[in-house]
Amino acid sequence: MRLEPVIGDDPRDILRALKSALHGAGPALGLGLVSMLPDEVKPGTAVVVTTSGSTGVPKSVVLSRDALTASALATADRVGEGAWLLALPASYVAGMQVLVRSIVADREPAILSGSFTPQSFAAAALMMVSTDRGVRVPTFTSLVPAQLTKLLDAADHDSAVLSALRSFETILVGGQALPPITLERAESAGVRIVRTYGSTETSGGCVYDGRPLHGVSVRIVDGEVQIAGPALADGYLGDAEMTDAVFRRTPDGTRWYLTGDAGMIEDDVLRVRGRIDNVIVSGGVNVSLDRVERVVRGIPGLESAVVVGIPDPRWGEASVVVVPRGEVLRRSEYVQLEEAREAVSHEIGPHARPSRLVLVDDLASLPSGKPDREAIRAAVAALH
Length: 384
Known about the structure:
Layout: E1 3-5, H1 11-22, E2 28-32, E3 45-51, E4 59-64, H2 65-79, E5 83-86, H3 93-104, E6 110-111, H4 118-126, E7 131-132, E8 135-136, E9 139-143, H5 145-155, H6 159-167, E10 170-173, H7 180-188, E11 193-199, E12 204-208, E13 211-212, E14 217-221, E15 224-228, E16 235-236, H8 240-246, E17 247-249, E18 255-266, E19 269-275, E20 279-282, E21 285-288, H9 289-296, E22 306-312, E23 316-324, H10 333-347, E24 356-360, H11 373-382
Parallel strand pairs: 1-2, 2-3, 5-6, 5-9, 9-10, 10-11, 23-24
Antiparallel strand pairs: 3-4, 4-16, 7-8, 11-12, 12-13, 14-15, 15-18, 17-18, 18-19, 20-21, 22-23
C-alpha cells in the first residue's frame, strides 16, 4: 500500500486525504517528518504520524483504519454524537481525530481559520449552532490546556467568548495535565470539560476523566501505565526493535502498549503521575519533575508554569520553575518562588523544592501546543 506525504498542514487538504484513506479508496497519509520514510506501508494503514514530541526523538506511528475508527466510535459512545470544531493542528493526533470523528459521523467539521485567538474561536463556535428536525445539534471540540486558559482569560471580559465556551456539549482537553485551578475556573464559568489521556500510539485520548473508553483496558505494571484495546497503533514504521519494546503481547494474546507514564488506579480511576523518565537526582534523591510541576501549577499565577531540571553545582541537579511573565500575579518573583517552594515541600518534601523561578516572555511550544521542554530547558541552562 502506498504512503503519500501530505505537504503542509492545511486541515482541508488533510481532511480530503483522510476521507479517502479511511474509506480505503486512497493511499495512506504521511503526516509530519515523513521525507525519509518508505513509500510503502502494509494494507489497512490509514495514517503514519511522525512527530518529534516533547523529547525531540522522532517517531513514525502507524495507525490503521480500524484503530482510528474504533477510537472515534468509542468517543461518540462516551460523550455523544454531533458536530466538531477543529481548533488544533490537523497534523497531530488530537486534531486529526476531530476530523476522523467527523468523517465517521458523516458530518463536515467546522475548521478554525488562521491562528488561534479567542475571537476567532468564538466566531467559529457560534456559527456552528444548528438544529436537526427541531432539535439542537450538540457541538464538541478538543483543546490543549494553554488554549483553554487563554479562552477563560478572554471570557472574563468578552461575553462572546464565554457564550462560545458554554455552547459546547463537551470540550475535550488533553495533551498534558490540566491544572486543577484551570478546571475549577472552567466549571465555575459553566464550561463542560472532559480531561483526556492518551497518545498517538493509542489513536489519541482513550481514557476520559480517568475512566477508559469502551473496549480499552488499563493496568499498572511496576508503576507504569499500560493500555490495551482496538485503538492501538500497529507500531513504528521502519523500527521493529522499538515496536517490540513498546508493544508487548501477553500469553493470553492481549497486546499492551507500555506508555512510559507513571500512574495508579484508585477507585477504578486512573491517575497519571507523569513520565517515569522525567526525573532528576537532586542531592542523591530522585525528584519527579512532573509531580513538582503539578504542585506548582496549583498556585495562582503559576497555572502555566513548566518545571525543568538543570545542572546544579551543589545538588547535582535542581528544578527550575519557568513561567510566562504576563501571567504572573503582581507579586515579587521572590514571593512566588517561596510559595512554590512551600507548596512543594508540603506535598512532596523539602528535597523537591525548586531552586529558582525564571520569567520569560513566552514559553517555547511545539506545534501541538505542548511545551517544548527541551527548548525551555536549554534556554534556562544558558542563563547560567
